[in-house]
Amino acid sequence: MLGYAEDQGIPYVLATDDATLGCDMATAFTPFLLSFSQVAESPDHLAVLLYMMAGNCSEIQAWEQELRYLRAVHAKNSSEAQDARIAQQRFIQQAAFRQLTGYRHLIAAIIEPGTKCPDFSSEQDEFYWLIGLLDGLQAVINDIASGGHANVPLDIAAKVARGADCLENQKWWGVPYAIQAAVWAMLADQESDEKQPLQMLDQAVQIGLDQNVAISHVMAAQVYLGLGDIRRVKKIIREFAQAKASFSRNKSHKLLNKIAFLQIQAISDRLWTEAMGRRTPMARLGTFWDERNEAVDIIDIDDLL
User: Fold this and answer.
1) Buried b (16+ CB within 10 A) or exposed e, 261-288
2) For residue 188, what pLDDT is reported?
3) Counting Cβ atoms within 10 Å, is residue 141 exposed (0-12), middle (13-18) or buried (19+)?
4) Whether the predicted pLDDT of 5 surpasses 80
């Protein structure tokens, strides 16, 4: 079962573009597959990816609660806003816990990041290393957003940044640079004698664009959103929307690009809801309410009655 899951099941799921089915698979099969650790060697490599996917499922639920919170604020409904914020933090806490678990399985499967680079036995090991680093970084980010209720050690961020040096940036879609830039931005270390984090982030986005993998776009949008640079966030969303068709050409990692699309859309929805009280209109990703030259659908409620 474990051999089938790793050799056939996981590649099949990664090649699909249905994130909902990916969520269902991760939440349903993670405890089943990990139960084999009771009778055989623990499937730690699989757990790294499965917990990343399960954590993303919790993030999706948290995004919906955030939009409910913003709509309540827009409508000046304080009790609804408070309830939505609490629900959002619960889902973010769950996401952080799942991602931290995935990171711990990375340590069990390979080695703890930040100490020395492992001797990778295959490209698949490098892939799991990359996913585990993303688990650790997102666990820290989500734990901070939840108020620290998942008890994620903050030093994981620095370990993840050092661990990203173990991967070839060009080979892995620019994501190692994006990880390092995100950590340095989080630590407010915007100037470095050797590396300029935001320049590295822009390079990562371009490499991801060239190789049709959108993970770096998501990380860049998150970084600039955290820095309050909404102009750059909008620019990244526009670039992603324009390149969406090219991302679909990557047949082996459709699921990763689909998750990236949902995350970019969630950031766009947040901006739209803060300004207009509603999410991004259908087929309008990459456009914004304040653009004079863009035709933005304005729905007349009377037409729906």
Assistant:
1) bbbbbbbbbbbbbeebeebbeeebbbbb
2) 66
3) buried
4) no
CA–CA separation, 97 and 130 (whole Å): 18
The total domain count for the chain is 2
Whole-angstrom distance, CA of residue 52 vs CA of residue 26: 9
Residues 133 and 210 in one domain: no
Question: What mean pLDDT comes out for the span 289-301?
Answer: 59
Longest CA–CA separation in the chain, Å: 64
Residue 109 CA to residue 34 CA, distance in Å, equals 13
What's the first-to-final CA gap in the chain, in angstroms? 53
Spatial separation of the C-alpha atoms in residues 176 and 229, rounded to whole Å = 22
Domain range for 188 is 169-282
Q: Among 167, 201, 234, identify where a domain stops.
A: 167
DSSP string, 24-38: HHHHHHHHHHHGGGG
* Residue 94 in tokens: 């769950």
Rounded to 5 degrees, φ, ψ at 113 are -60, 155
Residue 122: exposure state from Cβ atoms within 10 A (0-12, 13-18, ≥19)? exposed
